[in-house]
């Protein structure tokens, strides 16, 4: 019997002061939701799914409700889930009018022979499996609108360049989990980067780039500049180094350093080894993260910050 662990992130980048407390509260709530599933004897897949639902419904994050906007003011979301036991995965990209894209990614994994559906076809599949569409307006937060306006007001300037390269202020969400049977899973969900071209897909729904889970080694979920993450195939690089014997922290730090040096790209990762060792690493100003193991919640947002809190009120019936 393995000791269960859930880890979540609420994205990298600057995370302005006004969003710090909401980001902490959101990642804590998501970690508790994922941990409650594990404490009930649930699977790693169900745990990451439950955690992502909480984060997608929280407008403080760039996923589901609160997703950032394309330059046309639309919401286009990417989401993925992967089972480390079988390497089965499902993902969707550029989906619209969806409250919880993670539901659709999971349906792709479980109900199709494919691993990635995009755009119109993905939305059609959502209709087939009975996932209701919601109005775009219901997904748009004040923060997302403000970010788009900032971009448009600075169009063509150095500020805009910086903004697009360094990403948005609130961010992508992800989760990795290890269940009592020793199975790993990961999931990620995002609205992408603010002011992106319609049709742009980042790293998040691409297994190996934005995340990976393999029971033989570990699980990873990434956040940060999607194009850079994809160029260095960040998640798989970390898993490969761990497979070859590197410690999780060293593998994560090295891969992010390589991304900065090689393509001037920044981001962050949560990594969980198959022995239950959780590590975080980021090269952005901040990354909100939380993990729970053995009834203790660990979390942080600033470099070198780690706060701990007892969550022993989590039992086989869930967490209070
Ligand atoms: N990686 C995401 C993307 O590029 C965004 C982020 O994590 O900030 O779509």
Question: Your description of this structure?
Answer:
The protein has 9 helices and 13 strands. The protein is of the alpha+beta class and 320 residues long. It has a single domain (5-319), classed as Glutamine Phosphoribosylpyrophosphate, subunit 1, domain 1. Strand 9 (267-273) and strand 10 (278-282) form a beta hairpin. The longest helix is centred in the first third of the chain and has 23 residues, at 17-39. The relative contact order is 0.19.
Describe how the helices and strands are arranged.
Elements: E1 5-9, H1 17-39, H2 44-56, E2 77-83, E3 89-95, H3 101-111, E4 116-118, H4 119-128, H5 142-153, H6 158-166, E5 173-178, E6 184-190, E7 211-214, E8 218-224, H7 226-231, H8 234-243, H9 248-263, E9 267-273, E10 278-282, E11 289-293, E12 296-300, E13 307-310
Helix pairs in contact: 1-2, 2-3, 8-9
The structure holds aspartic acid.
Key descriptive features of the protein:
single chain, 320 residues, alpha+beta, Glutamine Phosphoribosylpyrophosphate, subunit 1, domain 1, 9-stranded mixed beta sheet, 4-stranded antiparallel beta sheet, 9 helices, 22% strand, globular, binds aspartic acid
Mean of residue pLDDT values = 93
Assembly annotation:
single chain
Major sheet strand order: 4-3-2-6-5-1-11-12-13
Uncertain spans: none
Shape: globular
- The count of domains is 1
CATH architecture: 4-Layer Sandwich
Any idea of the CATH topology? Glutamine Phosphoribosylpyrophosphate, subunit 1, domain 1
Strand content: 15-25%
Main sheet properties: 9 strands, mixed
Give the CATH superfamily.
(Glycosyl)asparaginase
**Cα end-to-end separation:** 24 Å
Radius of gyration: 18 Å
Number of helices: 9
Secondary structure category: alpha+beta
């Amino acid at each position: 019997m393995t000791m269960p662990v859930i880890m979540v992130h609420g994205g990298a980048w600057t995370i302005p002061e006004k969003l710090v407390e909401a980001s902490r509260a959101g990642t804590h709530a998501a970690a508790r939701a994922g941990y409650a599933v594990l404490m009930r004897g649930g699977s790693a897949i169900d745990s990451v799914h439950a955690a992502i639902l909480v984060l997608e419904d929280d407008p403080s994050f760039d996923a589901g409700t609160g997703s950032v906007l394309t330059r046309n003011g639309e919401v286009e979301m990417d989401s993925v889930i992967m089972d480390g036991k079988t390497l089965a995965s499902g993902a969707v990209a550029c989906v619209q009018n969806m409250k919880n894209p993670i539901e659709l990614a999971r349906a792709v994994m479980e109900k199709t022979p494919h691993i990635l559906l995009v755009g119109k076809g993905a939305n059609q599949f959502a209709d087939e499996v009975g996932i209701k569409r919601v109005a775009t307006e219901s997904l748009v937060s004040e923060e997302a609108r403000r970010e788009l306006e900032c971009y448009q007001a600075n169009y063509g300037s150095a500020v805009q360049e910086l903004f697009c390269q360094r990403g948005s202020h609130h961010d992508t969400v992800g989760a990795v989990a290890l269940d009592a049977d020793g199975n790993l899973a990961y999931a990620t969900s995002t609205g992408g980067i603010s002011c992106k071209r319609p049709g742009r897909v980042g790293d998040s729904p691409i297994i190996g780039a934005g995340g990976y889970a393999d029971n033989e080694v570990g699980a990873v979920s990434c956040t940060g500049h999607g194009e850079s993450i994809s160029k260095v195939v960040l998640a798989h690089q970390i898993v490969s180094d761990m497979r070859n014997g590197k410690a999780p922290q060293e593998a994560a730090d090295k891969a992010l350093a390589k991304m900065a040096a090689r393509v001037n790209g920044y981001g962050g990762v949560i990594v969980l080894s198959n022995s239950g060792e959780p590590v975080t690493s980021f090269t952005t100003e901040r990354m909100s993260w939380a993990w729970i193991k053995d009834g203790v919640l660990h979390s942080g947002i600033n470099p070198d910050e780690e706060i701990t809190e007892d969550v022993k009120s989590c039992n086989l019936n869930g967490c209070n």
